[in-house]
Fold Carrier domain-containing protein.
Amino acid sequence: MFGDAGRAKLERSAFVPFTAESGLDLFDVAAARPEPVLLPLQLDTAALGAQAGLPPLFASLVRAPARRTAETASEEPAGPPFAQRLGAVPAADRGEFLLDVVRGHVATVLGHGSAADIEGGRGFLDLGFDSLTAVELRNRLTAETGLRLPATLIFDHPSPADLAAHLLAGLAPEEVDADAAVLAELDRLERVLEGAGDSRRITARLETLLARRRATQTAEESGDGLDAATDDEIFDLIDNELGLS
């Protein structure tokens, strides 16, 4: 019933597949029960305990690990923090490094054999993500990077490349190209607008923003700042850009 990728995904999720025989046995048991709804699950509690950010229902099924003493903790070699690992990468290569990290986790979550199978510019939904795998990816990246990431992560940043750029902004904000950040936001806005329909209010707002941007750019190129301009002069510039005067 399951391919290798599907079986690997189940094992990571701590759900153990039923055999045909055990499934039929459980069906007979459920048919004899008075409860209106039953959910038969076979869980690997060890795999469940290894997951980050478990829901309360599952967390109650896992025994919390014994707290380590300072002595035992010091005996275990700890890898460097993620920010330190990122800092060891040349600045020009950090975006690509983070993209590889994201692609690696995406490949694991989706059950692919290699990060090379994941296209950086392809949307998460096109890659096969759903709400459960979205949360699993968020949890894995939170655990690795130490950043607090929202459950809506893949919807706010809908491709591995977008997500890697977001992680770079959180981990090394001083290295983010301002123009690239704005362009990334415009890409996201473009995707939102595709489903917004025909709205004159939206179009008018966009034209106004663009006119202001052009007016500022024109003033900067001519050497005249807008700080000294009156409100009427600014509106005249916008009207000229929109062809209203």
About this structure: Residues 82-191 form a domain with the Non-ribosomal Peptide Synthetase Peptidyl Carrier Protein; Chain A fold (CATH 1.10.1200.10).
